[in-house]
Amino acid sequence: MGDRLPEAVRQRRAEEARRLYARLLVEHERVRYAGTRAVRPSAALWKPLLELAMLHGTGRRRAPLATFCARHAEAEEAPDAVPTEDYCAALRVALDLAADQLVRLGGGTPWGRGRPRVPEAQSDFEAICRALRDEDTTGAIAAALDAAEPPRRPATDGLPRVILDVTGRLLAIGGVRITLPEGREHRFLQVLAERRAAGEVTPTTEHGTDWKNAADQLRRRIRKATGRSLIRAVVLPAKAPVGGYRLAPDVEVVGPREASLRSFSPQMLELLAHRPRRKPRGRDLDDEDDA
Q: Whole-angstrom Cα distance, residue 121 to residue 103?
């Protein structure tokens, strides 16, 4: 029991439980709004999910988590795609288990007394996030919330599809090909793609590199090529205390093992550009441009 632990140990474990709950919270909301039959699980949460199933995945209530993880027990890394419905059900159980652990350790109830611990509506999700941030004294919980891939909301502004070919240094926005010169802009997008896969945020400044300049250059390049300020379709800001940038959730990354965008016909790019999409949350980087 949490009350038998030394206070320093209890506090540390409560903080870990709160951080896990926060990460699962955002992942569950992301999957709820995926809008597809299959979804790629969070790479950063894959091992914690398997561990929860191994330690606590018994009983009828926890069956969705145990069943899901049993199917992927051999996978050391997150698969490229899993059934959305099954993954979402597993996350609901994992989120409830994380909440149980948080209560046992005296870590509070950020979902509110008498409220669902697993959000059933967007308003519930946002209220829990606010409570987690308000009670965060170290910045670790806010960092966990910001590092997770944000949920995608239904589009209201007609942002085009975006495909990033990291190897070929090409960016396709709504069927428009943009060639990226070797240098900071290309490296910026490359780092953003790598960090998104790892569930991390790219700080504004790191190791002597100021990514703000790269973001500004990319903004101007996109506007020149498309005639519109569409940086928010490619890059989103990360909130304090982390700060920095993240690749927009709907950007599709073409890696070394996939075909290069150079082989895509204009017709194929046009088809990809007009597939239904969902809008990611977050403050727009180009608010000043559109003012």
A: 22
Q: Are 244 and 238 in contact (CB under 8 A)?
A: yes
In DSSP notation, the chain reads -GGGS-HHHHHHHHHHHHHHHHHHHHHHHHHHT--SSEEPPPTTTHHHHHHHHHHH--SGGGHHHHHHHHHTTT-SS--S-EEHHHHHHHHHHHHHHHHHHHHHTT---TT-TTS-SS-SSHHHHHHHHHHHHHT-SSSHHHHHHHHSPPPEEE-SS-PPPEEEETTTTEEEETTEEEEPPTTHHHHHHHHHHHHHHHT--B-SEETTEEHHHHHHHHHHHHHHHHSS--GGGTEEEPPTTT-SEEE-TTPEEE-TTSPPGGGS-HHHHHHHHTS--EEEPS--TTHHHH-
What single-letter amino acid sits at 94? A
pLDDT for residue 272 is more than 70: no
Mean pLDDT for 224-228 is: 88
Give me the pLDDT at residue 139, please: 78
0.70 exceeded by pTM: no
Mean pLDDT of all residues in the chain? 80
Instruction: Over range 151-167, report the average pLDDT.
Output: 69
Phi, psi (degrees; rounded to nearest 5) at 107: -90, 5
In single-letter form, the type of residue at position 168 comes to: G
